[in-house]
Design a protein that fits this description.
The chain is of the alpha/beta class. 36% of the residues lie in helices and 17% in strands. Helix 7 (197-210) packs parallel to helix 9 (242-255) and helix 9 (242-255) packs across helix 10 (283-297). The mean pLDDT is 93.
Length: 307
Amino acid sequence: MFNNTDKRYNQYSAHLKNKFNAKVYKITLDAGFSCPNRDGTISTGGCIFCDDGGSFSQSHSNLMSIEQQVNTGIENLSKRFKAQKFMSYFQAFSNTYKPVKELEKIYNSALKHDDIVGISIGTRPDCVDDEKLDLIASYKDDYYTWIEYGLQSVHDKTLAKINRGHDYNCFLKAYEKTKSRGINVCVHVIFGLWETHDEIMETAKSLAALGVDGVKIHMLCALENTLLAKMYETGEIDFMSEEEYVQTVCDFLEYLPPETTIHRLAGNGLKKNLLAPRWLDKKFECLNMIDREFLKRNSYQGIKFVR
């Protein structure tokens, strides 16, 4: 249904393959960034779910240069998945949290390989300004350029509970400035944050109204050495079952515009530090369940979206 696939949602990997007529993979990079929500600028401790890796999913060290990480990633992904083109993805922590001159050197070093076709920069909405956004916008004529904002929820009470350090209005301001420069925006959301089903759907409807370019959905999970892990161990929080998560994902996607690309629906790479929920490390089982649920409903992304 989407991008000449049998998927009932707008899968980002298929979107990239159609756009570039090649199999495109993201290379996750760690440039040694920090985060104002961990270093004491906003608070200490950071978001309750964030571990010492800053949500970084790969094993190579930031002791390697960015160019080395890119070259290693291209070599590995080419062999493992027969990838042909690549996007440099700055994933760990807040990847705009340095002076703009340093950012320019870091970003430029990730774009030197001939097979790099895009750049994606994960950050917080309180870590961008006009100068940094102008820099990122300068790449868009030559590279497929994205900023990925960790929003998690549109509800300020939720953002406060997870110690996010910013409110929804902060995101809206950053989003408007980013879109005004023609930069693609992917928004990260988390399910399971003490919210009702209706509250989660309010996040979906809000993102739909904004017309966001992409969405990445995460399931709240407890990783070792996080504040959330302590809360889980003391019984302060439980987690969605896989079945509930699948139902919620399909409900959420039904409200999004069909043009919104879906960058992630199931987690991976968490087995080493994952405490709960244990079903989360079965990525493909979860994705298959989402496919079957959409088929059962005879539904698809955007069926409830109103322009």
